[in-house]
Amino acid sequence: MSEFAELAAKAGALDAADELAAARKQFVLDEVVYLDGNSLGALPANVPGRVEDVVRRQWGGLRIRSWDESGWWTAPERIGDRIAPLVGAAPGQIVVGDSTSVNVFKAVVAAVRMANPVVGGGGRDEILVDATTFPTDGYIAESAARMTGCAPRPVTPAQVPGALSGRTAAVLLNHVDYRTGRLHDLPALTAAVHAAGAYAVWDLCHSAGALPVGLDEHGVDLAVGCTYKYLNGGPGSPAYLYVRSDLQDRFDSPLPGWNSHAEPFGMRSDFAPAAGALRGRVGTPDILSMLALEAALDVWEGVSIEAVRAKSLALTDFFLECVGAYVPDGRVESVTPVAHAERGSQVALRCEGAGDVMKALIERGVVGDFRHPDVLRFGFTPLYVGFADVERAARVLAEVLGEARRR
Ligand SMILES: Cc1ncc(COP(=O)(O)O)c(C=O)c1O
């Protein structure tokens, strides 16, 4: 049997044994191999109908009555409670709204305020920021530092334990590195941050919906994440903010809006924060996007995040195996860790001419993305990517690289 036939047969066997295979039917997909769900998740098939109902019946028919009768007003916390089990949180700790960037701002400033409860006192004047972070977190942490009289200090996640001190107020970390797909040790890093008396803020954009996070179990203080990647909420769908229940009374938002007020319709001139995670809200929620997200979350009914993680690792293992078998030595180098404990749900391959290679892949129906300067990024969403897709993606990559070499 040729190598291609062998791996194609293996893909068939893996697909036949896949307990999540049926979930794919719940998405709108075509013959394209879609490996970009770590950037924009695919459309769940029930979303268009639900959005149409929200627009025509709730908005068009009920109009303003929908704030109560269609549950618009309570959507941020209701949908937060739907996301909660996916990230290991008990209800009442997550609110949905705003972008990840805005929630990073709220969380980092609130963490610094918790670390220095006496205004002008406390002496915790450093924010450690993941030096490998998705840029927006770094920009916002830098601004939050300036506003709170702190110094931002970029460190890699591995350097965090050595950089912590009595001066550390907050540490902002990514659970999975957006470029390399490296999974960081959230339990150990959170414990180290706590041992130093500081607060940990985690960005879950690349882990929520792809692997178990265990926010409550590991005592994470604050967390943020987007919903348009592995949670399939749609382009620009609202992000979320987690505030651990025992910290909620001390969560002093830098963006106190009327939606964070204890009595939003009291129209008072003085601010009194709402009880619980609700104080993480700001202004009027983006109802159309939010309710599209709510519908998208239906695909998680009866799905265990542990099963998703097991399939994700099997998919990335199989992709690395197929790339190893098909692509000539030296053409690509994986920058994603081999160890399961250090791998998210993507594989990043460093490759000469990566931008052009990705264009050629997309033309042939294999959609990943390119990250400057030389990385091909492939995301594996276990709910709709199968093993035959993986084998095809590696085969097409080998073809594209072979043709590039001949040219
Ligand atoms: C890790 C990470 N953080 C933050 C963001 C930005 O989120 P937003 O555009 O929702 O503010 C992204 C976007 O891809 C991301 O990957």
From TrEMBL:
Residue positions annotated to bind pyridoxal 5'-phosphate are 100-101, 134-137, 203, 206, 228, 258, 284
UniProt keyword Cell cycle present = no
| Any one GO biological process | anthranilate metabolic process
GO MF annotations for this entry?
kynureninase activity; pyridoxal phosphate binding
Q: What reaction is this protein's catalytic activity?
A: L-kynurenine + H2O = anthranilate + L-alanine + H(+); 3-hydroxy-L-kynurenine + H2O = 3-hydroxyanthranilate + L-alanine + H(+)
Q: Give the EC number.
A: 3.7.1.3
Keyword tRNA processing carried by entry: no
Instruction: Give the record's keywords alphabetically.
Output: Hydrolase, Pyridine nucleotide biosynthesis, Pyridoxal phosphate
**Complex formation:** Homodimer.
Protein name, per record: Kynureninase
Query: Organism classification, top ranks?
Result: Bacteria, Bacillati, Actinomycetota, Actinomycetes, Kitasatosporales
